Amino acid sequence: MKVLIKRDAFLTNYEVLRHIYEEELQKKHNIDNTGSKQFINENLSTIQFQLRKYLEELPAKKQSAKQVCNLTKELEIYSLTKAEKLMIINARPDTLVELYALIEECEERFNLEQLQQILDHIHSKMPLDSHEILDA
């Protein structure tokens, strides 16, 4: 097997979860339209099921495309790498300790005030519960 494109794009857990939901909906729609089950790879179905269950336990289940977009825009002012932004969106850190674990050489690159600002952006743009939404 030959890899044609090494990395086309980074995907957040939210995007992967939405894709799994769309695949399941498409599969159900195809069965409803034809009235019969087409060949379904059981291994693929098992992996999709397990992946969906795993992702539903993470912050991705409560995220929206708008929240991900808004947080990404807010993080642009900081010199974070794409991978660091992705990890922040996926992990949705709640404390400075969690944020330190996600950002490489955090102490050298950011002061405490900047890190607190990043956390504030995360909390305002990507709240854990719907009743926490301020202006996300």
UniProtKB/TrEMBL annotation:
Keywords of the record: DNA-directed RNA polymerase, Nucleus, Transcription
Domain of life: Eukaryota
Domain RNA polymerase Rpb4/RPC9 core intervals: 1-129
Subcellular location: Nucleus
One Gene Ontology term, aspect cellular component: cytosol
GO biological process: termination of RNA polymerase III transcription; transcription initiation at RNA polymerase III promoter; tRNA transcription by RNA polymerase III
Keyword DNA damage attached: no
Principal location: nucleus
One Gene Ontology term of the molecular function aspect: DNA-directed RNA polymerase activity
Recorded family membership: Belongs to the eukaryotic RPC9 RNA polymerase subunit family.
Protein name stated in the entry: DNA-directed RNA polymerase III subunit RPC9
Organism name: Pneumocystis murina (strain B123) (Mouse pneumocystis pneumonia agent)
